């Protein structure tokens, strides 16, 4: 039964990724997005909407380091833009309410330059719709079992009420272009931590 559930989860994740690649902008359940024509030049420029709040996410995507800008609108308090240097380029963004508190979070996915294509996440939560606070994703290296065989090539996606991270697993003698260890998928739930919001891993599956 567990193997069937894991296979079903992978099928759902793959279906969502395929649908995402076939559209000009990521599809977000119960919300909508707008992609600027400027994004066609190679930069990332997208506005994500959640009820009365929206997030304008931009990055030039030029070179190995880029400046990510997230400009919120509709917050009841501080709508000051957030700027953050990222390693690599922005490859996607989504808005969701993973903790079901009625206020959205914005999730921005980045991929580093080079053959490893290591994935990273920049995310913020709207606290009671008033201001943004950063969401922390624990390092994969904090869990030796989950990190075993990891060499990058991450994919992130919101699936139902979880953030899902998926990547190929490498054996010791594998080349970068030919991983043979299958695929690992980690599900994260958004929880309140001592110093802010934290994405905590709740399940790991290997396929």
TrEMBL record:
Using the record, list the residue span of the signal peptide; answer none if the entry has no such feature: 1-19
InterPro entries linked: PliI, PliI_sf
Which terms are listed as keywords in the entry?
Signal
The transmembrane residues are none
What domain of life is recorded for the organism?
Bacteria
Question: What Pfam families would the database entry show?
Answer: PliI
The name on file for this protein is VCBS repeat-containing protein
**Organism in which the protein naturally occurs:** Candidatus Methylumidiphilus alinenensis
Origin organism lineage: Bacteria, Pseudomonadati, Pseudomonadota, Gammaproteobacteria, Methylococcales
């Amino acid at each position: 039964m567990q193997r069937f559930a894991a296979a079903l989860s992978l099928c759902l994740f793959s279906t969502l990724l395929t649908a995402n690649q076939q559209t000009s902008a990521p599809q977000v359940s119960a919300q909508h997005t707008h992609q600027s024509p400027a994004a066609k030049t190679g930069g990332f420029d997208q506005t994500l909407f959640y009820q009365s709040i929206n997030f304008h996410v931009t990055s030039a995507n030029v070179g190995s380091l880029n400046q990510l800008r997230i400009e919120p609108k509709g917050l009841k308090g501080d709508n000051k833009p957030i700027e953050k240097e990222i390693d690599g380029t922005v490859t996607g963004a989504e808005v969701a309410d993973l903790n079901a508190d009625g206020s959205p979070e914005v999730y921005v996915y980045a991929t580093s330059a080079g053959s490893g294509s290591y994935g990273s996440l920049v995310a913020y939560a709207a606290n009671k719709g008033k201001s943004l606070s950063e969401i922390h994703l624990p390092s994969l290296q904090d869990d030796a079992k989950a990190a075993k065989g990891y060499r990058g090539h991450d994919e992130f996606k919101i699936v139902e009420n979880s953030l899902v991270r998926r990547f190929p697993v490498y054996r010791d003698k594998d080349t970068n272009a030919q991983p043979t260890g299958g695929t690992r998928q980690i599900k994260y739930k958004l929880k309140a931590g001592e110093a802010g919001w934290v994405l905590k891993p709740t399940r790991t599956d290997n396929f």
